[in-house]
Amino acid sequence: MTEPLAGAHMRAELNSQPDTWAQAEALRDTQALLPAAGARVAVVGCGTSWFMAQSYATLRERAGHGETDAFAASEAFVDRGYDAIVALTRSGTTTEVLELVERVKGKVRTIGVIGDPTSPLVSLVDDAALLPFADEQSVVQTRFATTALALFRASLGEDLTGAINDAAAVLAGTDDDALRDAEQYTFLGRGWAIGLAHEAALKMRESSQSWTESYPSMEYRHGPMAIAAPGRVVWQFGEAPTGLSTEVGRTGARFVQHPIDPMADLVRLHRVALDRAVVRGLDPDQPRNLSRSVILDA
């Protein structure tokens, strides 16, 4: 029997993202479960889901839909008179999310955005927005995170046609080996793309055990730029601050920015992370020290 290729699940899942985004955009009834415009909302998650929560919170508030805060579930300040709490989790089994939802049950409306429709969170939340078609076998998340963000963006009235087309174009192309083989990576973003920068750094760490950092773009000059050097990459998601590419160039580091939707650029990073893992002899479907869900002992 032939052994599966390292990262086979991750590759199939990351390649499916244009299709899963289109499915999420079409789920109008599911989008209607999310908090209505004007509601004061907290969005919680762990790891990847926390970073997607950050992006959603920025998008929702800047779209004028109401005050929106994002928290790591373990550190959430939810006793602030929120109208609703959105809990984002692929597995629906993460201990910190379950404990938070149980703690606020009956006090504030909870909406779960969940990949596994059989998970215990489904019966705990007041409303469950289910994305089973985006659930994954790989431990390292790709499509669930971006599909949830696609759902959020569509719920705010965004047309995702451009993002979907950009992602499809990324997947039809190739990336150069120098980008894959850099010594170190720093990811930057502005606005809602800050969450994507943090997620990109996490993906590269999880997949390939690489040295990565992430910051809001304007914070990069305030210290982190000290590590920029030849053989290292500074990857900007979305629009860059004026002059930053020139400043990075002076350090000898490579400044990377693609004129595409930042969510599609994250798909490119997914592929770079996977390819980097494979050439290092690693399997991102089963990364070191990690599991699909963090379930803590009582």
Automatic annotation (TrEMBL):
SIS domain location: 30-178
Domain of life: Bacteria
GO molecular function, one term: carbohydrate derivative binding
SUPFAM superfamilies for the chain: SIS domain (SSF53697)
Alphabetical list of Gene3D superfamilies matching this protein: Glucose-6-phosphate isomerase like protein, domain 1 (3.40.50.10490)
Keywords annotated in UniProt: Isomerase, Repeat
Ribonucleoprotein listed as a keyword: no
Record has Isomerase as a keyword: yes
Gene Ontology annotations of biological process type: carbohydrate derivative metabolic process
Protein name, entry field: Sugar isomerase
Organism field: Microbacterium mitrae
